């Protein structure tokens, strides 16, 4: 967050919005975020803006944000395999990485939340009617905070692919949903992490809605032997940038 003596204003319809002394965050480069209207992704056709967007300058409300007390998250909430009496079915994995701001500085004490399907590709949600079994030992939700270097770590199982009704024989690639709270509301990020080498990525309308292919590749985690634990879990690295020149593309779907 920066404050300056710059005086700024913008027209929004017939309303004039004053942003005196506030310098906002940089906006994402064109193509690095999902297109609002990407017709192969059926759900966005109704909800995409039908009129040109209005540039709204950042105000104090956008460049500040909530500060979370660490005790709101149970200490072991980072481990999705230890939330029930037994261990969940599936390949145990470690997902770790760094959260950084647009200048490469660590996002300290950032709240990260994840949610995902179980190993069979089924969510614990009443609207998920996929013909696949629920796992009584897996809820698919986790939380943690980044440390002083912006690092985080989750232990979970590799989620399964699942069918969805977007088009005939449509299947989502395996993915983990991420929500990150940075230091401001502008830095709030909701995205999805994918797995390297997934053959479904090339035909997934959500992944393909990002025009900049280099930006889209940032959503694919890196398999990392150094993170893998012998005889116990495979390891993946997924770094997150909350803005700047190469931000992690946002997303917000099941
Ligand atoms: Fe999903």
Put the structure in a nutshell:
The chain has helices at residues 43-47, 60-63, 213-217; strands at residues 2-3, 9-12, 15-18, 22-23, 92-100, 111-115, 141-145, 151-157, 162-164, 170-172, 175-181, 189-194, 222-223, 234-237, 240-241. With 254 residues, the chain is mostly beta strands.
Descriptive account of the structure:
This protein is mostly beta strands. The protein has a single domain, classed as Aromatic compound dioxygenase (Protocatechuate 3,4-Dioxygenase, subunit A, Sandwich). It contains 3 helices and 15 strands. The chain has helices at residues 43-47, 60-63, 213-217, and strands at 2-3, 9-12, 15-18, 22-23, 92-100, 111-115, 141-145, 151-157, 162-164, 170-172, 175-181, 189-194, 222-223, 234-237, 240-241. The strands form 5 sheets. Strands 5, 8, 13, 14 and 15 form a 5-stranded mixed β-sheet that branches. It has a 4-stranded antiparallel β-sheet with strand order 7-6-11-12, with no helix packed on it. A two-stranded antiparallel sheet has the order 1-4. Strand 11 (175-181) and strand 12 form a beta hairpin. The longest helix has 5 residues, at 43-47. It is globular, with a radius of gyration of 20 Å. The two termini are 31 Å apart. Fe (ii) ion (FE2) binds next to strand 11.
